[in-house]
Amino acid sequence: MRKMTNRLVLLGFLLGVLFWIFDSYIDASFFGKESFAQTFFNPSIFEIYIRSFVMLLFLAFSIYVETIITILKKTEAELKRVSHQNKLILDSAGEGIFGLDLQGNITFLNPSVVNLTGYDEKELIGKNSHNLIHRLKQDGTPFPKDDCPICAAYRDGVVRHEENDVFWRKDGTSFPVEYVSTPILEKNVLIGAVVVFKDISDRKKMEETHLENMRLLVANKAKSGFLANMSHELRTPLNSIIGFSELLKQRSGLNEKQEHYIENILKSSKHLLELIDDILDISKVEAGKIELTIEKTSLIGIINETVSLIKDNAQKNNISLIKELDPQLDIIEADKRRIKQVLFNLLSNSIKFSKKEGGIATIKTKKEGDMVKISVSDTGIGINVDKMERLFKSFEQLDSGSARKYGGAGLGLVISKQLVELHGGKIMAESKEGEGTTFTFLLPLMKKEKN
Ligand SMILES: Nc1ncnc2c1ncn2[C@@H]1O[C@H](COP(=O)(O)OP(=O)(O)OP(=O)(O)O)[C@@H](O)[C@H]1O
Ligand SMILES: [Mg+2]
């Protein structure tokens, strides 16, 4: 401001001095009254008035011009700032933004339009947007301009919002879009529209995945329901086969061959029943139909009962069963039958996957805070590190030949995991191939009240 005032005073002063010289010259040359020096240094009072008045006029004029220039400069700077800001906003918007005139020709666009459509700016500006990127519908049939919501906005001045449409790229492929077409008014006169659109491919994919998951969930529930029903239907005749085979076996007078056949029928039926029970359990768990009966029960009792169930099998396979039980730990709150089932699964695996020469299976218990730690270790064939993560998956047997070699359906560990987790616990495995495996599961000592 100070700089401007100094400049104006100097300009006014200079113009004043120039006028003073000019006027003295005119007076001396044309009117010839006095010499130039006399009229310059010693003017009459009238001339002083005139010259001072003109000098003031010059000064006022300079101030006026300077003020106008300053205002213009400020306006220009503000305009530059605003348009730079607008450009930044347009350039950084992830959405494609373009303007249309009343014919539907593109008047401006941001870089996202170029990125999303594959056309460059020159190919878009001045061109009809509908013909370029919106000429076809989702099903590939022509999209008449009269039905186009974008065009409707600059025709009738009403905002259009479309959530599910497609735009077409330069390479002929399409992409799903959501857009808003807003009319542009200038002094209440419709002059075009601005379109803001976004590529909704990711949203569509997420929606499809969600739908697919829902479909799978329903199918899975139906499958579990079917399995549960089927297992139930299968058990009934199987139980009668087992019952009658046992009756037959007890009859005297059977020859050796007949006894052998009956023995085979019994063995196979019992194996089948075990499988069906496992499948029933799995489907119940998946359908969320297993309900635990939690009660105060003796952990030592559970272990002893399980060991006596499996003792013969262990002996046959030359496995010594060892118990290392925490003397501080006995009564826990759990579903006795289900914990027995988990222990039985783990112990039968220790025996099943033992080495030819036999080995040791150890059951350990330990109280850890408000949890119970139970582990079953063996000195068997062990598990390959790469296969550990598949351990607790349904129908997974780590060796493809496992079913033939060892029997089983690959359900024992899945069921065990689910049962332990239903108790609010967790199960883990550690193993070294060729050396042995330890399965450890943690259970809450007391039943956890649900919030
Ligand atoms: N103690 C173990 N030592 C070595 N491998 C084991 C042991 N326990 C489980 N596995 C491996 O994990 C796989 C899955 O075990 P899981 O108990 O779920 O199924 P399974 O014993 O094969 O069949 P099922 O238990 O249904 O009769 C087994 O096939 C085996 O390859
Ligand atoms: Mg098993």
Descriptive account of the structure:
The protein has 13 helices and twelve strands. The longest helix has 50 residues, at 201-250. The strands form three sheets. Strands 2-1-5-4-3 form a five-stranded antiparallel β-sheet, with helices on both faces. The protein has a five-stranded mixed β-sheet with strand order 7-9-10-12-11, covered by helices on one side. The protein has a two-stranded antiparallel sheet with strand order 6-8. The protein has 451 residues and is α+β, with helices and mostly antiparallel strands. It has helices at 2-31, 36-41, 45-92, 111-117, 121-124, 129-133, 149-156, 201-250, 256-286, 299-316, 336-352, 402-406, 412-422, and strands at residues 96-100, 106-109, 160-168, 174-186, 189-199, 295-298, 319-324, 331-334, 359-368, 371-378, 426-432, 436-444. It has four domains: 2-91, no CATH class; 95-199, PAS domain (Beta-Lactamase); 205-286, Orthogonal Bundle (Helix Hairpins), CATH 1.10.287; 295-444, Heat Shock Protein 90, CATH 3.30.565. The model has no long low-confidence stretch (mean pLDDT 88). Helix 1 runs antiparallel to helix 3, helix 9 (256-286) packs across helix 13 (412-422) and helix 10 (299-316) packs parallel to helix 11. Bound molecules: adenosine-5'-triphosphate and magnesium ion (MG). Adenosine-5'-triphosphate (ATP) binds at residues 278, 345, 349-350, 352-353, 378, 380-383, 391, 396-399, 402, 408-414, 437. Residues 345, 348-349, 408, 412 line the site of magnesium ion.
